[in-house]
Each structure stands twice: as structure tokens, then as C-alpha cells.
Write a structure and sequence with these properties.
The protein is α/β, with parallel strands linked by helices and about 280 residues long. It is built from ten helices and nine strands.
Length: about 280
């Protein structure tokens, strides 16, 4: 345990567990409430899919949701992550500042659900913004109410995961209510904060195009949503479920066809929004 362990992972698909094992509960609680230290699954560089340009991404641990298609279930448990101080995270980020500017990229905080560590998230994003780095958060909206308007101002772009529109289907898919996401979406609209909606297209689970049309109409009505990303489901996280001894229900689910992905994009365009297939 400790900061000597490597933060860099080959990719977020690397299985990482128990990096903070043995840390006293009190220390974990203090870290969460002060935000001076966070728990990171990993830190990756050179991402072209987590916001505009080329990004450095910090993947946090901790998530209360249980999406059936989650490809990073090792991020669910907070103490699977490596304890990292805000100072160290920002020092690491500073190394990339000039390169990120040249590549019109920035820093993205993802997870897991980064707002499970909302104090740490606020400190890291505010610090990055002060360095002149473009900041993005990928969130499902859970704990969105824990960020003040001023803290939201330090985030240049919010990538908001909206998993399905129908409340009952959302609950079955994620274990949580869709209201968390919708509430943050409305607040971001009031603040005129740029948003990209992320939607994972899973055959048999989220491929009801009428449901997607309702998501797209809602998003289009907000006025601040710049695009909906249609992300085809894949099986790259299946081995993690197996290695963690978790019951995976999507063993027989295949990625959507190119035709279905295009149909989904067409639904988004029909609502008047830009569609980007991931
Ligand atoms: S919100 Fe993200 S990290 Fe959490 S279970 Fe869903 S897909 Fe996984």
C-alpha cells in the first residue's frame, strides 16, 4: 500500500484490486471528507475518447451503481484504488500541461463514479483548472448535489452518463434511480455548462429506440447538450466479473451491429442533436 505503487496502468481494463487494503477505516473516512487524498484505480495518458482532444484521465474508485454492462467492476470498491494525495495528483498532471494544450486536450476525471469522492474531485478539478488545463468529468450524476455552483464552474465539460430513460428499466439496469442523472442534467442546463451525454447501446437492454428518442428529446430540450455519444457495448470487461467472482448476466450479449448503432445515431439526430458513435 502507499504512493510508491504505480499509478500508471496500461489501460483502464487492467484489473486492479485492494491497492488500499489495510488502510484504517478512520483514515479512509477522513480522506473522503477532506478530499486531500483520493483513491485512484489508475492514471492513463493519451486518451482520445474521454473528452475533446488528447486527455490525461484519472480513474477513481467507488461506485454505488451496479450497471449490468459495467466494464470496470473493480472500480466499485473504494479501497481497490491507490491512495493518492491531491498534491501528488496535480504534480503528475502538471507534467502534461503544455502537451495537453498543444493537443487541444485536457484532464478528465472518470471512474467508477468520481463524485463518490466529491471533495477530492472538486479539489483536483479546481487545481487543474487553475493550471490552465481544460477539465472534464465523466459522471452518472450521483452526488451531483454535493458540488457547489462554484465547483461546477471549474469543470469545462461534463460527460453525463444517461443509461436509459424509463425509470423502471433504469432501476433494473443500474440498481439506481434515473433521477440522479436527470437532476444534474437540469442543473447544468441552468448553469449553461457544456454537456456531452454518454449512452451505452446494449442489444436486448438499451436498444429500445423509442426510449432513446425520449432521452434525446429531453437532452435536446436542455439547450446545453452538444452531442450524444452512442457507445456500442463490448465484452472487454467480462473477465473482471469472472475474476471478481461476480454474476455476469451478459455472457451471451453481443455488441450491437453497425446498422443498429447507426439507427440509434439517427434517433439522436432526429431530435436535433449531434450523434457520435463511440
Ligand atoms: S456507473 Fe459506471 S462504474 Fe458504476 S456500475 Fe455503472 S458503468 Fe460501472
Amino acid at each position: 500500500m502507499g504512493e510508491a505503487a504505480s499509478l500508471e496502468a496500461a489501460s483502464p481494463y487492467e484489473l486492479r484490486v485492494q491497492l488500499a487494503e489495510g488502510m484504517p477505516e478512520q483514515t479512509v473516512r477522513e480522506a473522503l471528507s477532506s478530499g486531500d487524498m483520493g483513491f485512484l484505480h489508475s492514471f492513463t495518458t493519451g486518451s482520445a475518447v474521454d473528452g475533446p482532444g488528447i486527455r490525461v484521465v484519472a480513474w477513481t474508485t467507488g461506485c454505488m451503481w451496479r450497471c449490468q454492462y459495467c466494464h470496470n467492476p473493480d472500480t466499485w470498491t473504494l479501497t481497490n484504488g491507490l491512495p493518492v494525495s491531491v498534491t501528488r495528483a496535480l504534480e503528475e498532471l502538471a507534467k502534461y500541461r503544455d502537451g495537453l494544450r498543444i493537443m487541444k486536450g485536457g484532464f478528465t476525471l472518470s471512474g467508477g463514479e468520481p463524485l463518490m469522492q466529491h471533495r477530492f474531485a472538486a479539489k483536483v478539478l479546481t487545481g487543474a483548472k487553475k493550471m490552465g488545463i481544460h477539465t472534464t468529468i465523466e459522471t452518472n450524476g450521483f452526488n451531483g448535489d454535493k458540488l457547489s455552483d462554484a465547483e461546477l464552474e471549474s469543470i469545462d465539460l461534463v460527460m453525463l452518463g444517461l443509461k436509459t430513460w424509463d425509470p423502471a428499466r433504469h432501476k433494473a439496469l443500474t440498481g439506481m434511480d434515473v433521477d440522479h442523472t436527470v437532476t444534474l442534467a437540469r442543473r447544468l442546463a441552468e448553469l449553461r455548462k457544456p454537456v456531452w451525454i454518454r449512452f451505452v447501446l446494449v442489444p436486448g437492454l438499451t436498444d429500445d429506440l423509442d426510449d432513446l428518442a425520449r432521452t434525446a428529446e429531453f437532452a435536446a430540450g436542455l439547450g446545453n447538450v452538444e452531442r450524444i455519444e452512442v457507445l456500442p457495448f463490448h465484452q472487454m470487461g467480462r473477465f473482471k466479473w469472472q475474476r471478481l467472482g461476480l454474476a455476469y448476466r451478459l455472457n451471451d450479449t453481443t455488441p450491437p451491429s453497425a446498422q443498429l448503432t447507426e439507427q440509434a445515431c439517427e434517433v439522436v439526430r432526429k431530435a436535433g442533436l449531434k450523434a457520435v458513435a463511440g
